[in-house]
């Protein structure tokens, strides 16, 4: 009996260690993604395990596991000598992602316009109108939280497959270069104006116009990103 209890205790210890390891790897992953979203780790940046581990106050193991996770999601790639780096911006990949996004978000916004309540649509328009920040909008849908305009509307489209593809295959990669598109001359203000035009079309439930405006808005973002003045794109 004592032997069984001893074995059980050892199993529990191993399980606890594995759980702690997974938790630390998740922490490392979240912190790396935060650096990417903030623009501190830019496309092409080398990920140095030792430096990141020191910065995050953890061992290299969780950092290594987090980098493997990002590699599987194509946010990180391996180059010569097995160095890991944030996936560089390449025009063919950007075009492919934005074409996919244009199709799916155009449909998602149209579906959301049909599904959302009048009060939600009124709140969306009012929130975009009063916002001075072109990237975030205030208390739409969930009080106390700020949602990015696109993700907030897509979340109300009612099509789980569209939401899944955008969340898993599109939005994570877009975060790699959102900071570039948002800081190109004139894009922030024009993007906000386009958001307002889309929101107003949604409020009157003109689904055809909503889809047309959304697709045009995303296409313009791609054109800005691929502009000749942007040396961050390979």
TrEMBL record:
Keywords: DNA-binding, Transcription, Transcription regulation. One of its GO terms (molecular function) is DNA binding. InterPro entries: GntR_C, TF_FadR/GntR_C, Tscrpt_reg_HTH_GntR, WH-like_DNA-bd_sf, WH_DNA-bd_sf. It holds the Pfam family GntR. It comes from the Bacteria. This is GntR family transcriptional regulator. It comes from Agrobacterium larrymoorei.
């Amino acid at each position: 009996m004592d032997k069984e209890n001893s074995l059980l205790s050892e199993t529990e210890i191993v399980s606890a260690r594995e759980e702690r390891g997974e938790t630390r790897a998740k922490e490392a992953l979240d912190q790396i993604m935060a650096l990417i979203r903030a623009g501190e780790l830019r496309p092409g940046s080398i990920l140095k395990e030792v430096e990141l581990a020191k910065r995050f106050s953890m061992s290299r193991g969780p950092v290594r596991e987090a980098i493997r996770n990002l590699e599987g999601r194509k946010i990180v790639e391996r180059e010569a000598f097995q160095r890991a780096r944030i996936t560089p911006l390449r025009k063919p990949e950007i075009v492919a992602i934005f074409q996919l996004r244009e199709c799916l978000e155009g449909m998602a916004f149209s579906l959301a316009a049909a599904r959302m309540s009048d009060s939600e649509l009124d709140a969306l328009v009012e929130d975009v109108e009063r916002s001075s920040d072109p990237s975030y909008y205030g208390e739409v849908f969930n009080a106390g939280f700020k949602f990015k305009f696109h993700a907030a509307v897509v979340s109300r489209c009612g099509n789980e497959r569209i939401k899944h593809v955008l969340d898993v295959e599109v939005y994570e990669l877009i975060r790699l270069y959102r900071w570039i598109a948002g800081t190109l001359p004139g894009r922030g203000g024009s993007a906000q104006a386009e958001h307002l035009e889309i929101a107003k079309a949604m409020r009157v439930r003109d689904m055809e116009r909503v889809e047309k405006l959304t697709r045009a808005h995303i296409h313009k973002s791609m054109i800005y990103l691929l502009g000749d003045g942007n040396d961050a794109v390979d």
